[in-house]
Write a structure and sequence with these properties.
The chain is mainly alpha-helical. The protein contains five helices and three strands, in the order E-H-H-H-H-E-E-H. It has helices at 12-18, 25-28, 37-47, 49-67, 85-107, and strands at residues 2-5, 71-75, 80-81. A three-stranded mixed beta sheet has the order 1-2-3, with helices on one face. The mean pLDDT is 96.
Amino acid sequence: MADVSVEVPAPLRDCIVFCEVACLRACCGIDAVSTDPALIQDWCRQVGSDVVVEARLQLPALIEVVEDRSRRVTSDFLNHRTHDEAARRELLDFLTALDAGLAAGDAS
């Protein structure tokens, strides 16, 4: 199985950095990033609707790459690798939670 490396573009990257409150991605990977909707909504309020919409538009392509089970996904930025199905599911759950938080933040 081949590896594919994914980049997380701004502004989605900026949202993730803002929500990196539990630890550091370099240490704990996506576990360092809170997907608490209230925190994501704080970021949304700070950056405004146009930026939130842009971040939300970046998620489907990223999710599509992660869902492709013909290759392992790596991300240096997220410090995460989908070495097995559990790691893939963890990343998909993380991205889905981010999307839900951004959707709620965009609606408020």
